[in-house]
Amino acid sequence: MIDVTDRHCRYFHRLLAPEARLYTEMVTTGALLHGNVARHLDYDDSQHPVALQLGGSDPAALAASAKLAQQWGYDEVNLNCGCPSDRVQKGAFGACLMADPQLVAQAWRAMQEAVDIPVTIKHRLGLGYDISYGFARDFVGELYQAGCKVFIVHARNAVLEGLSPKDNREIPPLRYDLALQLKRDFPDAQFVLNGGIATAEQAQEWLGEFDGVMLGRAAWHHPEVLSQLAHRLQPQAPVLTPEQVIQKMMDYAREHIAQGTPLRMLTRPMLGWMGGRPGARRWRRMLSDARLLATNDPAIIEQAWKLSQPQAPVHPQANPEYTP
After folding, report:
1. pLDDT digits over 19-40, tens only?
2. Is 191 within 8 Å of 206 (Cβ atoms)?
3. Does residue 49 have a cis peptide bond before it, meaning omega lies within 30 degrees of 0?
4. Is 166 helix (H, G, I), strand (E, B) or coil?
5. Do 288 and 298 contact (CB within 8 A), yes or no?
6. Could you confirm whether 148 is annotated as catalytic?
7. pLDDT, tens digit (0-9, with 9 covering 90-100), for 137-188
8. What does the angle CA 269 – CA 190 – CA 127 come to, to the nearest 5 degrees?
9. What residues have CB less than 8 Å from 87, skipping those under 6 apart?
10. Which of 81, 83, 96, 148 is catalytic?
11. What pLDDT digit, counting tens, does each position of 227-271 carry?
12. Which of 187, 194, 255, 296 is the S-S candidate for 154 at Cβ 3.0 to 4.6 Å?
């Protein structure tokens, strides 16, 4: 979710799902240790619980980055061992790490010894086209022996040669049965299921089998799924109305525009919110209109909402200017 689940996206998602655990986009150790730390780690306090997802392969650099996460108040550090992008392959981290479980175990120990907050692992089921269960079992087993007890399993292989990141989210088959087998073989560890979960119904069903579910692209393309799932899991909990969400996003936008953030960065996570409902096209068109966004006027969010709402038909006799 690089360049997707930034701090502004997470603020919007928190409004829709008050209790969900939010994860940052993957941040590399190099960006933290040699770049602008505040740019990568700053966030609104409403986002708790929030986890920092790290990309890297050097245990010392990962430990130092984990310390920064704790200093900035994150609730969890997650090591990404599943991203198949070209960028991570060049840096020999992400899914590449699954080829060296001993190194991952060493990195996990270094990170966990450096901080008091939990350090977790996100991984795939395998590399390439080897679909044997033994690969995933041995990878998890190495980490389990090191002390790791929380695993986020993207229930697909990562194919590092010949497939794009998009293809890697669609072409390798989903194998939920193997993810379930990991849960059975390591019963005192926690397993969170990721991959191919698109609806609140699917998420709730899998929550009966796993300790949690992680939504990625579904939450980006169809954010309403977060509200739907929140309501299913806690039907008595208060949920913001769309009008309240709009008002909070306008207030948030004013604050961050004053700090130099362009409006387009703040409306980007909201584009899919109306998906599947009347007015969705108008909503999306207004919130992606470069001319409108260039004004940096937060009122555009409210205008887009109002103009996207279905208009009640007016009976001709109710119109004072109507002449039979």
Report:
1. 999 999 999 999 999 999 999 9
2. no
3. yes
4. helix
5. no
6. no
7. 999 999 999 999 999 999 999 998 878 878 888 888 999 999 999 999 999 9
8. 70
9. 2
10. 83
11. 999 999 999 888 899 999 999 999 999 999 999 999 999 999 999
12. 194
